């Protein structure tokens, strides 16, 4: 390695240390290890620390030792686009990934995108993805082409077929044994953490659980006494505990950030807490997810940031942590929230897309709904087909006092509605033409309210 490159990395490491002094004022010059654990279809109310009856002692400990977000958002209400947002820091419609990819898909996450592992590799990190990928199953889109040194897992959701279990592109099993996946992902993650190396590491542990079909290893069957879903979540919690144990045994606790979250809300099973909606919907239950962050000595124990964060914020936050130049992103650096240095942060609107359709936006505590599909997710299409339509009247909710999105206060807050709507229109001009066109098509569709006022219908 050239001396100039060594000097550059030394400077960036020192800069990161200055930014990330310990809670007690201790300067930290080592580049930190980063563990990002992602559940699949886990609900906001599925962990003990978020009110669930399912025993999750290890995840409860992460919350007790660090930060627990009450307002944190996935990148989309469904798998593929949400993961694109997580690994790029950009709205998935900018990446061309607005819907779920299936095994026959010929597209995927473009190699022109800067991903979290690519960014961290530029800072000398070794990188691994263990688990579900779902950002394109052709070789040019798979993890080894996106900045990961190692990959062990499946190319897409485990309800799709055929389902090969892969190790760096080589088929380990023609069809993965579902009841072994959580255990095998965990074993691979532990092996990666334990591998001797001078470089810091980035581990992306993307579990398949608790996406259906539900499957657990023998030792967790009926263990939760709360049904198969409870068993699956409990095995997921065990996995987090094994990762934490390994980090501690290797003496890495004081130099490792561990984050845990979910790619969207729950599907047919799972608990959204008090939130309205589920996977596939832009109500809070479809997109607000648990998020925990633990970093011994740098994140104070037991804090609950008041401000909100999102998958878009992971890239800029990790860039700061690693001393990397932050690539283009739609998010912000939320380290001050994680570290207890700020209760809220100034930020632009957070936009909620369903496919390429912009449906809602959040500003501070306010969430404005402007459009919605004419049928609920996972239901049969209505006569004439499923379409996104403008709401006859925009709906405004105060998410701090009304997380259920049950009381529309738009009529009493017309200035807030106008402010959010105007900024939505401005932001849309920065998006690809197909997104702008979809918005215009939606907004010029004539509608009338149903008797219940719940859904618009096209005029005949």
Topology summary:
Blueprint: H1 3-19, E1 33-39, H2 57-65, E2 67-69, E3 72-73, H3 79-88, H4 116-121, E4 126-132, E5 150-154, E6 165-167, E7 170-173, H5 181-194, E8 201-206, H6 227-249, E9 256-262, H7 284-287, E10 291-294, E11 309-310, H8 314-322, H9 335-338, E12 350-354, E13 357-363, E14 366-373, E15 388-398, H10 414-428, H11 433-443, E16 447-449, E17 456-458
Parallel strand pairs: 1-8, 1-9, 3-11, 4-5, 4-8
Antiparallel strand pairs: 2-10, 5-6, 6-7, 9-10, 12-13, 13-14, 14-15, 16-17
In the CATH hierarchy, what is the architecture of the largest domain at level 2? 3-Layer(aba) Sandwich
The number of helices is 11
Strand-residue fraction? 15-25%
Largest sheet properties: 9 strands, mixed
Specify the oligomeric state: single chain
Which overall shape is indicated by the principal axes computed on the Cα atoms?
Answer: globular
Helix coverage percent: 25-40%
Radius of gyration: 22 Å
Fold and architecture overview:
This protein has helices at residues 3-19, 57-65, 79-88, 116-121, 181-194, 227-249, 284-287, 314-322, 335-338, 414-428, 433-443; strands at 33-39, 67-69, 72-73, 126-132, 150-154, 165-167, 170-173, 201-206, 256-262, 291-294, 309-310, 350-354, 357-363, 366-373, 388-398, 447-449, 456-458. It has 460 residues and is of the alpha/beta class. The strands form four sheets. Strands 2-10-9-1-8-4-5-6-7 form a nine-stranded mixed sheet. Helix 5 packs parallel to helix 6. The model is unreliable at 1-27 (pLDDT under 50).
